[in-house]
Amino acid sequence: MKKPNPRRSRKQVDTHIALEPMPGMHPKILDEFQINRDHLQLIKSNTNLENRRIPDADFYKNKELPQLDLRGQFLEHFAETVPAESLDWIILGNVLCEVPHPAKEIKLLDSLLKPGGRVYFCEHVQAPVGTWRYYLQKLVARWWVRIADGCNCDRPSVETMKAVTDWEIEHWTFFEGIFPWNAQFELGLAVKKGRYRELLAAGSKD
Description:
Elements: E1 15-19, H1 26-45, H2 57-61, E2 67-71, H3 75-79, E3 87-93, H4 102-112, E4 113-124, H5 132-147, H6 157-164, E5 168-175, E6 184-191, H7 196-204
Parallel strand pairs: 1-2, 3-4
Antiparallel strand pairs: 4-6, 5-6
């Protein structure tokens, strides 16, 4: 039995799965992914590169380029097609502000994430209660969700993650954007605990 690895390197990842129900966003996602593939292809094909200046150059020269599995699905439909606890990484970029039921979606993500798996997130969030930014968010929230394609400017997304999972979470606050009601962001990393120690112990016996 192969031991589970909570620190699975990006060098070991063969396929990236992207869920985007809006078809209009697919060309942008494909373009961004292709830029990264082109960079790796340059490393693979140029035998004259000074490897000491490019991290992991020797590794990528002998590795197949990663693939992108882009699906026009919602999370509920995707979850029906993959085994539980099968994902190494999950990346959330301004996702929790738009889903109908954040707690439900986070629980579903948790069920798909391997023990020791990681969630990388960057989400704009509700400002601290009692601040001027908090009251501004409450004032414009109903208007904003209608004109911004369902974006909610006042969701306490990090607190929701903590409430419905056992993830270990580290996050940092920064401010970005011209609209003060959705300018506070939390950038962070969450690690699923769960049965990871048990799996390690079992793996060491095989």
